[in-house]
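Predict fold of LIV-I protein H; 317 aa.
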Amino acid sequence: MLYDIFIDPFVQMYEMPDFFLQVLWEGFVAGILYALIALGFVLIFKASGVFNFAQGIMVVFAGLTLVGLNENGVPAYLALALTIAAMGILAYGVERVVMRPLVNQPDIILLMATIGLTYFLIGFGEFVFGGEPKQMITEELGLPTGSTAIEFGERGLVILQHIDIAAAVIAVLMVAALGIFFNKTRIGRALRAVADDHQAALSVGISLNQIWAIVWFAAGLVALATGIMWGARSDVSFALEIVAFKALPVLILGGFTSIPGAIVGGLIIGFGEKIGELYWGGLVGGGIESWLAYIIALIFLLFRPQGLFGERIIERV
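Predicted 3D structure, encoded as tokens:
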């Protein structure tokens, strides 16, 4: 038993390095997409200090809107533009209807509001688009399909799906763009000021309502990109909301306010899930991918609750 746990998996990695590289690639792509989902949570939390429970369903809603418009005869790129506009309208509505009336309310009230928003979007999405899984319009959007096989050694082969490469590139570009937005633009600096202290930001003339609308719109764009990439790899359905909650352990690992933390946390979870499932999964009957991320997060909570890049807050009483 000890051999199966501590030695055999590493022997397999050594004997079949091509398969191990394939596992690492799959873990990398999954981790980048988890990080992209987590970025949506980070954006909202940085601006308001509220965990946006609705981010997962926003991923589904954005994907369903895009596919639904195309199914009704709207050309793909026009459907993409209209979906971006729809996420803007959603952001404005959330700021006006949900956030503005609850300014200065306890965080738990705002969390409950985002839970209510989640179920509203689920009901509205099912009413408009139905509950059946839909196929992402990958080719219509110009995203690559097919795969490339790379020889490794004499008999080894690593297969890279083109859509996975595109997903990784788009995710990296979005992360870089958000980093520049936060650190180099006036709105980004205002957003960081709001995150640090709402009252101080208001006292120097920063519009809290405007910042919240902008950050919800940015989170909507991240949700749209995530919905397209995840939908292209499988399909667009309400089951994607469950995948989106893998961002929870990512946030715990990286820290709720850290963009670099979201990336590192996503990669840890992505690599951990794939390696754990394929090399240790048989020892526990499989299914490690569904729960390993939460075990890793639990361990971090015990020893470093603020995450790898989170700020340690000390309150004196």
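The first helix runs from residue 2 to 6.
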